[in-house]
Write a structure and sequence with these properties.
Layout lengths: L10 H25 L4 H46 L26 E3 L5 E4 L12 E2 L2 H6 L3 E2 L11
Parallel strand pairs: 2-4
Antiparallel strand pairs: 1-2, 1-3
């Protein structure tokens, strides 16, 4: 289900990418300055003013990106949780078209079917067996012995025809 809310990039992610970019530029400038100097005492100002802060910004940007992605994921989980509980307590299913709760079974046919090797019996119009060629009519013996249980989706009656 899609929401009408536009997905926006979290500001922490922007800050992380900006810190990475600025840090990379500072490291390149520091390297360029160091490469032009022959003596170590003239290279130190470039290291102190560009390369070290650039490396720190790269690390900070990576941390911000990791934190930003985690908070975006947490926001998505909260949104999904809100969608799940939007129907309210006690509502098991909601009609996809209207958003209102559906009461009673999903299927209403009286004919019962099962899939060979399965553990449940279903109404013939249950979405789990509808249109399946391998579905066969249910014999009353497996139902009576407890080998087959009722489908929780279509909620078939206990007694068979």
């Amino acid at each position: 289900m899609r929401t009408s809310r536009l997905r926006t990039v979290h500001p922490v992610l922007w800050a992380g990418w900006a810190a990475l970019a600025v840090g990379a530029v500072l490291c390149v400038v520091g390297w360029y300055g160091v490469s032009g100097e022959r003596h170590a005492e003239r290279q130190l100002p470039y290291l102190a003013s560009c390369t070290v802060p650039g490396a720190a910004l790269i690390i900070a940007g990576a941390v911000l990106l990791a934190h930003g992605r985690g908070s975006v994921a947490a926001a998505r989980v909260e949104e999904l949780y809100g969608l799940l509980v939007a129907a309210g307590p006690g509502d098991d299913r909601a009609d996809a078209g209207t958003g209102q709760a559906v009461s009673g079974p999903l299927a209403v046919s009286g004919d019962l079917l099962m899939v060979p090797g399965g553990t449940l019996y279903h109404r013939a119009d249950c979405p789990l067996v509808a249109g399946k060629a391998e579905a066969v009519p249910v014999d009353s013996k497996p139902v009576a012995s407890g080998e087959l249980g009722p489908c929780p989706i279509c909620e078939p009656a206990e007694e068979t025809d």
